[in-house]
Amino acid sequence: MIETGEVHLADVNEERRRLVLVVSTSSFHQRSNRVLVAPQIMGAPEDVALPWRVQVDTTVFAIDRMRTVPIERLLERVDRAPSTTCAAIRRAVRFIA
């Protein structure tokens, strides 16, 4: 079962695969067969301070660039964010919405 806060390597229909942070809940995944993800970004460290950016270890994810992908596009789980980061994900989504 895929859960909020997991980091996966995903095929997001680009030239290469990239890391994504799962933002959606397992109940959404079960009903839609899709996952709402935030992509990894490469950028300046000061970008982390933006309220719509979330950091997991040394990787920064852009909540403001979320999109849905089919579940089968998640290729492998590579990490799991701590519960404090999952709370930051919810705050970032609320900041945008």
UniProtKB/TrEMBL annotation:
Keywords: Toxin-antitoxin system. The keyword Oxidoreductase does not apply. Gene3D superfamilies: 2.30.30.110. InterPro entries: PemK-like (IPR003477), Plasmid_toxin/cell-grow_inhib (IPR011067). GO terms for molecular function: DNA binding. The keyword NADP does not apply. Belongs to the PemK/MazF family. This is Type II toxin-antitoxin system PemK/MazF family toxin. It comes from Candidatus Neomicrothrix parvicella RN1.
